[in-house]
Amino acid sequence: MKQFGGSVLFLDRSDINTDEIIPAKYLTEISKQALKPYLLEDLKLDGFNPKTDIAGKRVIITRENFGCGSSREHAPWAFEVNGIRAIIAVNFARIFRQNMFNRGMLAVELDEKVIDEIFADFAGRDCDCSIAADTENGGTIRLRSGGTGGLTKTYPFVLNGFRRALVESGGWLGYAEQNY
Which residues of the chain have pLDDT under 50? Predict the structure, then answer.
């Protein structure tokens, strides 16, 4: 069973596109590490400052159609070099979602009502998330808010066999090494 988790960054907006995730002007960088300071640099969201809000975050929770726009592997790479290995949303752009799994990262889809509940209960609080991608039973997300009177809730999610294998292998390269 693969474990993911840590501090949560809530991005309360739909249709966050790959140009906002990592601006095109940085696509000429020759190392993934060079992308690190530019993650979400162009994202316009009230109260969000990429220079101060990303550090230490390990999970993103957002709305629908995350990763839309032009297809680029640089978008998941920018999350990866910043230590963010799981994104939870209503849904993802197809290519972005597959690029996440190809890197051994999690792109978890939850019903819109569940995402609404998560935002209502946990956004704006100090929140930790633990995610278990169980190879037998899909997966579970456990959210816990800190402080006095903290709240804990668990949500199941579906992870199909091939995507689960990619996650367990650490991505496409690990999967190919094990299976070909």
Answer: none
Question: How would DSSP label each residue in the chain?
Answer: -EEEEEEEEEE--S--BHHHHS-GGGTT-SSSGGGGGGTTTT---TT--HHHHSTTEEEEEE-SSBTBSS--THHHHHHHHTT--EEEES-B-HHHHHHHHHTT-EEEE--HHHHHHHHHHHTTS-EEEEEEE-TTT-EEEEEEE-STT--EEEEEE---HHHHHHHHHTSHHHHHHHH-
Residue type, 160: N
Give the whole-angstrom CA distance, residue 39 versus residue 23.
8
Using an 8 Å Cβ cutoff, are 97 and 106 in contact?
no
Q: What is the pLDDT of residue 134?
A: 61
Q: What is the pTM of this model?
A: 0.93
